[in-house]
Amino acid sequence: MFKIVLTTLALTVLTGANAQDNDLGALPAAILPPAGYVPKEKLYAVGTQNYVCSAGAATPWTLVTPKATLYKEEAHTTEVAKHFFTTPDATGAKVIWEDVNGSGSHVRAAPNATSPSPDGPQNVPWVILKATESTGELFGNIGYVLRIHTLGGVAPNATECTAAKNGTEVDVDYTALYVFYTNKGATNTPETPATTSQPVEATKTPVPTGPLSDATRSTVTMAMSVVLSAVGSAIFWL
Ligand SMILES: *[C@@H]1O[C@H](CO)[C@@H](O)[C@H](O)[C@H]1NC(C)=O
Ligand SMILES: *[C@@H]1O[C@H](CO)[C@@H](O)[C@H](O)[C@H]1NC(C)=O
Ligand SMILES: *[C@@H]1O[C@H](CO)[C@@H](O)[C@H](O)[C@H]1NC(C)=O
Ligand SMILES: CC(=O)N[C@H]1CO[C@H](CO)[C@@H](O)[C@@H]1O
């Protein structure tokens, strides 16, 4: 609990800083988004990585899809999105995160680089994915997605993909933190008050009508709730 409080405070203070300086812990260099990208959303996933056995193949277990639900909170209380594979687009990108509220807001991306989980090989690697499509309010303006802090999800042992199991699917439980990065347009300029820096980013959206004001309002609300929750947590715990 105390860790969560510190985490929230750190997020509030350092939202404007670069990827290495936020509350996500040490991020391996291999999966850092380019300079200028900052987290817009952090969502906690629970689900499975689903593999199918191809007996005799060089890689006997093929990942066919993840099936995960993403929540606002680490305690997995408020469901906000689903994560899965879809039909690849022209570039081959097929990884999707989609708002569950019917708005259709989603990000589509393809893996760009991976780094082994620092918590051991029983956990799927940490990954940076590059977005090819990003629409709507929750998932609009996303350039990169990170999968970090993974637990589980690794394919079964190759020896378990026997001829008898050819074609069978095994769904392996996992949890992860997904971080959705948006381009702030500035490189490494510290902008301490999240409440004033966030709307500036929203005004750069190339859609100057209704959705813009909605997006701006939501961004302000989000930034304010982060600050309020940090203040609330601090008062509660100090
Ligand atoms: C597994 O199934 C695939 C097609 O479904 C087939 O091509 C392959 O030969 C099978 N492998 C074994 C070991 O039976
Ligand atoms: C979906 O959620 C967004 C906020 O993330 C909200 O602005 C939008 O109106 C919602 N859409 C629907 C169809 O509920
Ligand atoms: C796979 O299973 C075999 C036999 O059970 C075992 O010897 C081997 O160490 C296992 N490999 C991994 C990577 O767990
Ligand atoms: C973070 C990032 O975009 N990394 C790499 C993604 O893939 C391209 C092309 O393969 C690389 O040039 C980037 O450095």
Compile the SSE list and pairings.
Blueprint: H1 2-14, E1 37-53, E2 61-71, E3 79-85, E4 95-99, E5 106-115, E6 126-135, E7 144-152, E8 169-183, H2 194-202, H3 210-237
Antiparallel strand pairs: 1-2, 1-8, 2-3, 3-4, 4-5, 5-6, 6-7, 7-8
The chain binds 2-acetamido-2-deoxy-beta-D-glucopyranose (4 copies).
Q: Summary?
A:
Helix 1 (2-14) crosses helix 3 (210-237) and helix 2 runs antiparallel to helix 3 (210-237). The chain has three helices and eight strands; from the N terminus they run H-E-E-E-E-E-E-E-E-H-H.
Which key phrases capture this entry?
about 240 residues, disordered N terminus, alpha+beta, DUF3455, about 20% helix, signal, single chain, 8-stranded antiparallel β-barrel
Q: Please, could you describe this protein's structure?
A:
- Residues 1-19 form the signal peptide.
- It holds the Pfam family DUF3455.
- Residues 188-213 are annotated as: Disordered.
- With 238 residues, the protein is of the alpha+beta class.
- The chain has a domain at 40-181.
- 21% of the residues lie in helices and 35% in strands.
- It has helices at residues 2-14, 194-202, 210-237; strands spanning 37-53, 61-71, 79-85, 95-99, 106-115, 126-135, 144-152, 169-183.
- It has an 8-stranded antiparallel beta barrel.
- Helix 1 (2-14) crosses helix 3.
- The longest helix is centred in the C-terminal third of the chain and has 28 residues, at 210-237.
- The chain is globular, with a radius of gyration of 19 Å.
- The site of one 2-acetamido-2-deoxy-beta-D-glucopyranose (NAG) has 8 residues, from helix 3.
